[in-house]
Design goal:
Elements (H helix, E strand, L loop, with lengths): L3 H15 L8 H22 L8 H27 L12 H22 L6 H27 L2 H26 L3 H22 L3
Helix pairs in contact: 1-4, 2-3, 2-4, 3-4, 3-6, 4-5, 5-6, 5-7, 6-7
Length: about 210
């Protein structure tokens, strides 16, 4: 769990740059993402301390949706915009590698937070399902954010909606696990991860 994000970041970065003949890893944006994790704790810990107001299915879904997914995605996006001074100019060069590095650095610290927050109480969700969802989030968040800021007004709605549906899907995967549908939750996390890799790799140049 604790090393899933940095290991994936290094391996994916190496794979993406091998065909250029020049292997490179963007440590600067990775470090920025890791640094941003600390001020973002003010946001994420607020959601971590909340308890569901009811144990009905809808309220449990909202609880896990906010606690495990929305708060970190929102904090990560806010952090990237802070470092970009709230502007991401449209250029011919894709910002996706920078976004990927930034979110990888950020979620590497999220993994460490979960490691200590649940120390000695790890389950299948924390060890396998959640890390796959983190990696999927990093890939799709990088892809959708880059396309959102590079798109025209009408297309922005499409990419913004896809990001929202990603978060909704993550919330359902978590709730399936909490409902003891462990195998279904695990399979869906793997399918989402495979789809995220394919999307990032094959559609990044569209």
């Amino acid at each position: 769990m604790i090393l899933s994000v940095p290991i994936f970041y290094v391996l994916f970065s190496l794979y993406n740059t091998m065909d250029t003949g020049k292997i490179s890893i963007n440590y600067v944006d990775f470090f920025k993402g890791a640094v941003w994790f600390f001020p973002s704790l003010l946001i994420t810990l607020f959601f971590q301390q909340k308890h569901p107001g009811s144990y009905k299915a809808f309220f449990l879904y909202i609880h896990f949706f906010l606690k495990d997914h929305f708060c970190y995605t929102g904090a990560g996006l806010l952090g990237y915009m802070v470092f970009q001074k709230f502007r991401l100019p449209r250029t011919s060069k894709s910002s996706m590698p920078n976004l990927f590095s930034f979110f990888s650095g950020f979620y590497s610290l999220v993994a460490i937070q979960y490691f200590f927050m649940y120390y000695g109480d790890y389950d299948f969700y924390l060890l396998f399902i959640l890390p796959f969802m983190w990696l999927s989030t990093i890939l799709l968040l990088s892809f959708l954010t880059d396309k959102f800021f590079d798109a025209f007004r009408t297309t922005k709605i499409l990419y913004g909606s896809l990001l929202f549906f990603l978060l909704v899907a993550l919330g359902f995967i978590t709730c399936f696990y909490m409902a003891n549908l462990v195998l279904l939750s695990f399979i869906l996390s793997l399918v989402l991860f495979a789809g995220s890799c394919a999307t990032y790799y094959f559609l990044r140049d569209i």
